[in-house]
Amino acid sequence: MHRAGQLRIYAGMTKTLLCLGFGYTAQALASKLRPLGWRVIGTAREPLADAGVPLIQWPGEDIPLDGVSHILHSVAPSEQGDPVLAALGDRIAAAKDLRWFGYLSTTAVYGDQGGAWVDEDTAPAPLSARAQWRVAAEEGWQAVDGLPLHIFRLAGIYGPGRGPFAKLKTGKARRIIKPGQVFSRIHVDDIAEVLAASMAAPAPGRIYNVCDDDPAPPQDVLGHAAELLGLPMPAEVPFDEAAMSAMARSFYGENKRVHNDRIKDELGVALRYPDYRSGLKAVLEAEDLANFTPPAAPPAL
Length: 301
What we know:
Helix content is about 30%, strand content about 15%. It is an alpha/beta fold.
């Protein structure tokens, strides 16, 4: 289905989307749907300034489900499990108006594949605790009878306000070199496009990888961002010598390339940003960094 056709379908619908966790991705989806007449409600742990939609503080306040036709769940699980499933699972399963339930998972569920390609039929092999919690959450929701569940395994998310430019501007960015390492990634606007396409053509039980076409070494992405800003190429640091947090280091323990054929073949999605080059160019423009003036080089000693 082409994007123009999808927009006509959305515009003709009277729908209510409940975003359990009104974070970065949910806000992008809300920005896409609200101009088309959708009612959007979100939840947040703390009040958010200028959210643009009615917010429910959760945990804490009651979440009404009457009239909710679509739910997007992006609340992270923990070692205690999925808090939404534990607190609201039975009510969500019984919600009479619900037509679509989207769960945002992660491609980390595939673990380390030594740089090989994975698709949605690849068996999960999570390494990190957080990936193991995601697999458990996926399985928990899959066990809910009659739920119109759609699982979206997201690659590394970037977009306006979430990209490499801020780190580069500090002058402290380094290109971490681990031979053979690649990561898949996805621009937040393309995630919103995939979610909206699924909402227009529900297929309960389906799992979708959400990533761009170009798994790439992280040092290449950072280097290209530096070129866009007119900055010198950041210094290379071997992975074994790099000072990194335990979480950042764990990301480098997982090396895989992620297929995205299903979002194209089944949902008709045409990615706006099929690679990091087009995506970073858009982020640069959105962050109004086109006129960024590089800092003067320090005087020679």
